């Protein structure tokens, strides 16, 4: 089969695999991924594997950049006579008309207000829908053009795609281009929009989407090629596996040892000493997280996706800490995914900040 979906573990080397396959292509290649962090990692991997050069036949773009340039703008005139003025990122449903007892939103027939801000930036959660509608109005020429431009399309972090993104991916699978997708269903930290379209596949269920909605199309699903981690040591793999016991358990392929390996608690009073000694990357849930040490670098959990660090220091939410200390279930899929991402950024050690009076026989306390 020419198309494939690779179900990957964290640190399994999907970026390396994609770059090697792209370098083997003599015709045109698009590699697209959801986060800017992962786009940088892809560019970095090309320079590592190809003598510092990204080949001229290879285009690397984030998913939003790709959709604006090739999905929305070429045939935008089919829906509007105004010019798209960039992207407006949203973290909730866009196009609010007014808020009464319940919020009321502009209908899709009200083009200017449904898809765009007042200065005609397109809402990020409506971008793939706009591209799909442009394709419908142009008798499929949006997709025909993309397939003509790119004979090989690699879609990384595909687990973050939702709603009309999935519609767009299905349309690409119907073309003559070779479509390769990779993702880890445990790393759903972003959703591209809030549409009710294909809502049952929201929680990382890209494999189920391909099986159920694309069964008439050629697409091989491979759950074996990328199931081991070249990043995390076995202790970190074992800890991360407990967050998603229903998924295939990841095994470490990384055998390097250091003088500080494993998963630990660090009391709040000892974080300064720990940071000074081991220089871990500080990871927090979001900017509201308190007691971060400003003298050392910090990233949000979601922002860190795609990155690798020797060591991380995690500032957990209460739900995360209760799961570790008391084995209390994390009932939020998003929280569980973000914790998984944070833990699996580290090669050698994961330290989790706990209260000064916390006692535990679950993990050693630094």
UniProtKB/TrEMBL annotation:
Record keywords: ATP-binding, Helicase, Hydrolase, Nucleotide-binding
Highest rank taxon of the organism: Bacteria
Coiled-coil segments: none
Listed InterPro entries: (+)RNA_virus_helicase_core_dom, DNA_helicase_UvrD/REP, P-loop_NTPase
Record-level GO BP terms: recombinational repair
One GO MF term: 3'-5' DNA helicase activity
UniProt xrefs under Pfam families: Viral_helicase1
Domain (+)RNA virus helicase C-terminal stretches: 151-353
PANTHER family: ATP-DEPENDENT DNA HELICASE SRS2, UVRD / RECB / PCRA DNA HELICASE FAMILY MEMBER
Protein name: DNA helicase II
Species whose genome carries this gene: Acetobacterium bakii
